[in-house]
Amino acid sequence: MAKKAAQLRERDVVGLVAAFNAGRDPERVTQKYRLIADNPFAFLRGTCHLFYQDYPVNARFNQAPAAWICGDLHLENFGAYKGDNRLSYFDLNDFDEAVLAPASWELSRFLVSVLVAADTLKVRPAEAIALCHCFLDAYADNLVAGKARWVERATAEGMVRDLLRDLRLRERPAFLDRRTDIKKGKRRLRLDGIKALPVSDEERSKVKKFIAAYTKDHPTPEFFRVLDVARRIAGTGSLGLERYAILVRGRGGLDGNFLLDLKLAPGSALAPYVPTAQPKWQTEAERVVAVQKRVQAISPAFLSAVSMDGQCYVLKELLPQQDRLSLNQWGGQLRRLESVMRTMGGIVAWAHLRSGGRQGSACADEWIDYGQRAAQWRSPLLDYAQAYHGQVVADWKQYAAAYRAAALARRGQ
To answer: Residue ranges per domain, the chain?
Structure first.
C-alpha cells in the first residue's frame, strides 16, 4: 500500500483538481482554490474525489458490510444543529456525497482526516494514532451493543457538551444580526464576500418564484415569504456549486425571520468508484435527503429534495458555521480530543445501525458481527490510513506550490 501511495505522487494533482471543479461558479471556486492551498487538512476536505479515485477497492479490509455513508467523513463533518423538533443535537451533517458503500470507505477517510489534521492541531504522530484507536474502539463497541443512540446536551461530554450548551443559549436575533443588516426597518442579508455574495435579478426572481410555488399549499405560506436572497459561501468541497441563502419572514417581526439554505445537488463524487449497486433515485437531491433522514437521529428543519428550473436542490434551514466543532480549542489536553473521538465513533456506529437493512445496507446482526470481528480489520485499515496520510501531504505540497507560483505570476503581470 505504501508503494501504491508513492506511485501516485507523480500524477498531475493541479489538473485533476481543475477538471473536477470545471463549470462551477468562478468567484466561489477561486475561493476554494485558495482555501485548499492553505494546509493539508483543508486540501483533504476539498478533494474527496481524489481520495476515492485512489481507494483500493479490492483490499482485504475493504470487505466490510454495506453501509449508508455520508461519503465525506472527516473531523469537521460533525456539528450541532436544531432538529425539526427544535431540540439540539450533535451528529453527522454533510451528505452531498452519500452512497451505499462498504463501511471501510467511511472509516478510512475519517482516520486519514485525523492523521492529516494532527499536523494542523499540533498533535504528535503517536497521539494521533492513539486518537484513531479511540475512535475505532468506540465504533466497534457501539456496533456490538447493537442499539442506535444519539448525542444531546444531557448526554454529551467535553467539547461537544460545550458546543451544545452554546447552541441552547444562542438567541435567534443574535444569529440574524451576524448574517444580516437592518435597512429602513427591514432585515437584508449581509453581502460581505465571506459568507454571502450578491445575486443577479434573474437569480433573485428564480428563487422567489420557486419558494412561492413550493409553499403554495403549505398551511402557513406567509412564513416562507422571501425578504432577500444571496449566493451562499460555505463548506470547502462544495464551493462553486449553485447555492443560496434565503431570508424569509418566518414568525414575523425583525427577530422572527428565518434563514434557509438552497443548494444544488450534483452527483456524488464517489459514484464512478463505488462497487456497490445503488438504488435508482429520481434525483440526486432525493439521494442526499433520503440518506440524511435515515442516518441522522433527527433531521434539521425543512429538509427537502426540491426542483427548480429543471434542476434538483436540497432545501433546509441554514445552519451557522460556528456550530461545527472547533477542534483547535483542545488546549493541549489530549483527553478532550479523546472524548471527541469516542463521541464521533459512537455516532458513526449508530448511523450504520440506524440505517441498517435499508435498500441493501447490512442488518443489525451483521453490524454486531462486524464489531465483534474488529481485531481482524482495524489494523489493516489503520495501516492504509497511515500510508495515505503521506499521499495527501505530497499532493497538497504539489498543489500549494503550483498555487503560490500562479499567484506570484498574477502579481507580476
So the answer is: 2-168+332-412, 171-267+279-319
How many residues belong to the chain?
A: 413
User: Quick one: 10 exposed, middle or buried, by C-beta within 10 A (0-12, 13-18, 19+)?
Assistant: exposed
What pLDDT digit, counting tens, does each position of 94-136 carry? 999 999 999 999 999 999 999 999 988 889 999 999 999 999 9
| Pairwise CA distance, residues 81 & 163, whole Å | 10
Strands (E) located in 214-293: 226-232, 243-248, 258-264
**400 vs 13: CA distance, rounded Å:** 10
| Mean pLDDT, rounded, of the chain | 89
pLDDT tens digits for 222-236? 999 999 999 998 878
Q: Cβ-count burial of 263 within 10 angstroms (0-12 exposed, 13-18 middle, 19+ buried)?
A: buried
- Provide φ and ψ at 285, rounded to 5°: -65, -35
pLDDT class of 262 with cuts at 50, 70, 90: very high
User: Is 351 or 160 the better-scoring residue by pLDDT?
Assistant: 351
Say how far apart CA 111 and CA 108 lie, in whole Å: 5
E strands, 205-357, are 226-232, 243-248, 258-264, 304-308, 311-317
> Directed axis angle between helix 334-354 and helix 125-145, to 10°?
30
Q: Which helix (H) or strand (E) holds 101?
A: strand 99-102
